[in-house]
Amino acid sequence: MEHGPFDQFVIERLLPLHIGNVDASFTNASLWMAIAVLLATLLMTLSVNKSALVPGRWQSVAEVSYEFVANMLRDNVGDAGKKYFPFVFALFMFILFCNLLGLVPYSFTPTSQIIVTFAMAGVVFIGVTIIGFARHGLHFLSFFVPQGVPVFLLPLLVPIELFSYLFRPISLSVRLFANMLAGHTMFKVFAGFVVALGIIGGWAPLAFIGALYCLEVLIAFLQAYVFAILTCLYLNDAIHMHH
Amino acid sequence: MDAAAAKLIGAGLATIALAGVGVGIGQIFGSFVQGALRNPAAAPKVFGNVLLGFALTEAVALYALVIAMLILFVF
Fold this sequence. Notes:
The complex is a heterodimer. Chain A is mainly alpha-helical. Chain A is built from seven helices and four strands; from the N terminus they run ββββααααααα. A two-stranded antiparallel sheet of chain A has the order 1-4. In chain A, a hairpin with a 2-residue loop joins strand 2 and strand 3. The longest helix of chain A has about 40 residues. Chain B has a single domain, classed as Up-down Bundle (F1FO ATP Synthase), CATH 1.20.20.10. The mean pLDDT of chain B is about 90. Chains A and B meet through helix 6 and helix 7 of A and helix 3 of B.
């Protein structure tokens, strides 16, 4: 096959740039990430530029997305989470715009690259760990010791807790990456069926692509939501240490 | 058996994980419908949790997909 289902994920250098041994080229992934940041910034600045008491269409979009994340943070972290709102909101809008822009035909999905999602999950993980140690000092280590458990079970449970904590950035990044990868691969696989079945039977997979596209729009939003809400839950763990 | 055949079998076996995910997603929406029929007024409140559970369960299927792709394309 000329265009395999994975060709859409190939990174191309648009502006080659090498600093020493580091390849810092401006790639198509960088381009689409820049577009996502630009569009999110434009949405959030232009729409509230001439803010009215009764919001117009664009202002409503901006206000609804702001309230959505603010409520998520308030419900899951409480008042202590207020100062982390800019970070969670930026994360949510960036992932949402990357996911949605990826659904535009002929575009590129930066979130379908594991390194992009892993960088974000790594920032969340390291940041949350630092917040935990900064707020509780070495007492934060008791987070790994489950309460109300017989002492002789602790040697078994503490490594499990520690491992599940260390596994967080991997599950967080792979969840987003694999969702985007699987969705876009499925589009291309079914597009291949349309070509193979031709004009007689090709409409059936084409209709399926239409349905799949609706699901992918939902998934694009849902994955941004899941990433943001898990960030909130991790923040809550670090700040309140409930177990 | 040569390595290429073993790879294909391994990637196929990795999709067995989908059985558990199917049970999980069915369980989520089944429980939601049951609960919603018993108390329709509470249904909209938990629908966000349903979608969250669906997304988290679906991600498990995708871990299996990642394993299958690792088997096929990395080794």
